[in-house]
Amino acid sequence: MPRKWHLAQINVGTIKYLHDDPRMSGFMGRLDEINALADNGPGFVWRLQSDSGNATDIDVGGEPLFLANMSVWESSEALFDYVYKSMHREILIKRRNWFERPKGLYQVLWWIPAGHIPSAQDGLDRLELLKELGPTPQAFNFKTLFPQPGEDEKSDSMSPEKSCSGWD
Description:
The protein is α+β, with helices and mostly antiparallel strands. About 25% of the residues lie in helices and about 15% in strands.
């Protein structure tokens, strides 16, 4: 039976240097590889990208150093496994080399009807909703997952800290 809902996510960050700065090469040089890993991963549906094949040149916040990564997955488990249990984790561990430490929330998850493609502004709006109200069925995170619409039981939370060293 086809799924009625997919999980959308956006995560944002401010890079420390311009895209072509040699200090960004460890990040920029792995984008194609990491994006291909997502594209071919179990449960992957869609990701935000320009003609370049990634989203680093898409203006989502009016600041050249502000980046957004946005994708859609069949389930929270598929997204979690990609982010924290695949080679992508290596990038997370080293992110402090390329990204400013976030001053607040930088990732949000929300359910969308299967087949719907959210805009970057949709993602930014959901992130603001999460900042304003905390986790709700309309905007949440891995620590406070909500079930797909129409499901009664609350999903088990997932702890990224167990899978990633974080910012400290």
